[in-house]
Every structure is written in structure tokens, then in C-alpha cells.
Request: fold
Amino acid sequence: MHFFKYRADELYAEEVPVKKLAEKYGTPLYVYSYNTLLRHFKAYTDAFNGHPHIICFAIKSNSNTAILRLFAKNGGGADIVSGGELYVALKAGMKPEKIVYAGVGKTEDEIRFALRSKILMFNVESEDELRGIDRVAGRIKRRAPVALRINPDIDPETHPYIATGLRRHKFGIPIEEALEYYRLASKLKNINVIGIHTHIGSQITRVSPFVDALKRILLLIDKLSIQGVKIDYLDVGGGLGISYRDEEPPVPKDLARNLIPLLNGRKLTLIMEPGRSIAGNAGILVTKTLYLKKAEEKEFIIVDAGMNDLIRPSLYGAYHHLLPVVRKKRDTVLCDVVGPICESSDFLATERELSRVKQGEYLAVMGAGAYGFSMSSNYNSRPRAAEVLVKGRGHFLIRKRETFSDLIRKEKIPAFLK
Ligand code: LLP
Reply:
């Protein structure tokens, strides 16, 4: 449930007409709803209320510090995958003891930064990494809190690019080898084994893959306990899907109802790493129609947002609803909605039946709050979009639109070319 709704024929973000925002801040523009973000975050904390837990928001889905601050203020932590994300999380006010760090390629510098920041734990993905963390920790005289990321070989039934928990994926440690890895980890002097982590994929629309994964992990925890390895933190990752088109994914309450009974009597702090299910439907991308173009075989609506602003349609063939910001009674047209980028894959929608918009009118790309701005780039030397947070009647610029000079800010012309 989100707070982007029509009133009469005008799309609102909470109490503010989206058109007003587009006119004030320009387009392309990311607009987020504070109350939707909060509601989605609270859906997790309420659902898992009966069990010790930490909600570690997956920063990769949306790393705006204002949005992260919102979660931090409500007791949330962060799931990070880079030194940059750690920096952002800390700047946003996230408590280090609520930060978990995953990813297959942590560098020594990143490991040192995380150790010095005293994060809750590293979710370790390989033997080399484990030994690397041990080494770095030894050098700076720290003990590294560690969970091993276990790959439970579960098919999450999602897009192949965003499935992660199968044997063939680069992520995690195969469940069959887990005991051996834990034995090694327990022997390393500067490693403190405290947890277990798993994350099977993203945009998962059924509960059963989560249940199957958890059952496998709990069996492993029992085996570990027989070997004297005590696990305090059980991190089940993120991955709950959202409705982009007509999916009816489970909500956190469904997840809790199915997962908590399995934990019965265990003294485990549960960690969850939701990204999309919190931020996805809490944000839209507003774009302006530049031109209409009739080609021989089809019609194109050319808008001012491109694949550099929102890459999901181009990269995954992802579907996003497109809504006119002001609804008019008009015929529909079967069209491709495309951006200004010089690539044939630069589209927001293909073969879409849309109400015929006119030049200068705005469209809202729905479900753009997660993996939208965070995956955007400067391709074609396009300054990145502005971001606005709406709260009731208030609207707040939380990221300025980039300028042309931002595009070359870090560049240098060597003397011999001057
Ligand atoms: N935890 C870990 C270790 C992850 O790798 C991910 C996402 C999450 C949590 C958060 O998953 P979520 O709750 O958002 O599904 N760019 C793709 C999604 C990539 C997801 C990568 N990992 C997309 O736009 O669909």
C-alpha cells in the first residue's frame, strides 16, 4: 500500500499534486512518500515484534541519506555491500551495531574501515575472504565478528539476474561445506563467529522459498551446536517482492507467521535485510513527454527520463506501471515509451497501451523507489535527477539535481594536452 493516489484526475504524492512537484523541481524527478516508507518499515517491525530482531535496510536499493535517516530514527539498521555504503550509513546516523556487511569482494581497506567502525558483523562469502578478514583484524588488533553466508541451494523463482541462492551462483558458501567452514572460522584467532546469513534472491513473490531456506539453515544451526559452535544472529536476508504489475506478494506479516514458529524456543536474534519491499512502491519517477513520434510500425512517446535514470526496464525487461500525472479522457495508443539515450534498449515500456499524452505532459513511472536512483548513472553525460521527499503537505529536496559542472568535477586534463 502506498500514498500515490489520484484525486479526481490528478495524481498526488500524499497531500501534494505530483504536477506541482514536477513544475517546481523539474524532471526527471524522483519523488518518495515519507509515510509509505515508514509504513513499510513498520510492517516489518510490527510483524516480528514478538521476536528479537533487527531490520537492516538494504542500502543498495536506495541510499539517499535522508531516507536512511528515517529508518535509523525508527530503530533500523543497514545491510551494506561496500565501504561507500558503510560511509553513507554512518553519515545517515545508522548505529554501527546494527550494520551487517555482505558481498563477495570486500577489499582490505573496506574490511579495516568496517572493523574500526565496529559494525555488527561481516557476512563472509568465501574461505579467502575469511582468512583476509582474520589477517586485517590481527593487524589492527581487533576481533572480527563474523557470520558465514550460506547458499542453501533454493530456487526463489524470480528473474535469473536477481536469484542468488542456487549452487551455480557466486554468492555464499555451499551448504554442504558449511560445517567445514565454521570449523575453520572457529580456529582463526581474530575471528569471532556469531552468526549465519543467507539471502536467496530478490522480488520473491511466495513465502515457500523463504521457509525452505530457513528450514535448511536451522538444521545446520543444530549441527553446529553439536560441534560447539554457538550462533546468536540469524540473518535471513531480504528478497520479498512487490507488486509491479499484478503480482500479489506476501507481506511481512505472512513471512513472520511462517518463519517465527520455526524459531520456536531458539535464542537467536533475527536479522532481515529488506530493500525493495520497503522502498520500491514508496517512490516514483516523474518524467515529461518531449515528443511523439509515429514510425511505420509503431508509435513512440519520447520522454526526458532515460535508462541512465531508471535502468530496470532495459536491464531486466522489468515492468513498471506508467500513469499520466493528470488523467484526461482520451483514446489509448499502443506505444513504446523511450528515453533520449542513444541505445535501442533505452525504454521505460514497450508495446504498452497508454492514454494518448501530449507534448509537455507528465508521466509517473511507478514502483521506482528501489533500484531506481541507486542504479542511475551519468551515461550520455546526463546529470542525475533530483530527489524529493513528500511528507503530508510538505515536500523536501533530498538530493539536488546534478549540474553540467558536476559531470566533469573529478576529471583532469594532463599538462601535455593543455
Ligand atoms: N541482502 C542481500 C545480501 C542482497 O544481495 C540484497 C539484494 C538484499 C538484501 C535486498 O534484497 P531486496 O529486499 O531488495 O529484494 N537491481 C535488482 C535487484 C538486485 C538485488 C541485489 N541484492 C533489481 O532492480 O531488481
Observations:
- The mean pLDDT is 96.
- The pocket of LLP is lined by residues 58, 60-61, 79, 102, 162, 199, 202-203, 237-240, 273-277, 312, 316, 370-371 (CB under 6 Å).
- The first strand starts at residue 4 and ends at 7.
- The first helix runs from residue 18 to 25.
